[in-house]
Amino acid sequence: MKLCNYKHLIGKSKEKIEELKEPLRIARIKKQAQMDLGKINDRISILEGAIEEECFKYPLNFIYIIDMLDEIDLCEHRKNRYQEIIENFFD
What we know:
This protein is mainly α and 91 residues long. The protein is built from 2 helices and no strands. The protein is rod-shaped.
């Protein structure tokens, strides 16, 4: 009986291990993307609260309110992009 080359066997083992790790890596990446999406949602909530607080102040700082609204729009855009990417990559 002829034995296989040990180096060849180790190479196959590493490939098999990498194949088994793929679903775990994919799940980890998806969870990370979902966590990032949660951070964006938190940021939107914080900005909305800051706008509400600013509306009770006198005199109103319109520039600040406009800046916060612009940042909310940017966060909403980023949130939509994240959702598209998550749907396309993982579903």
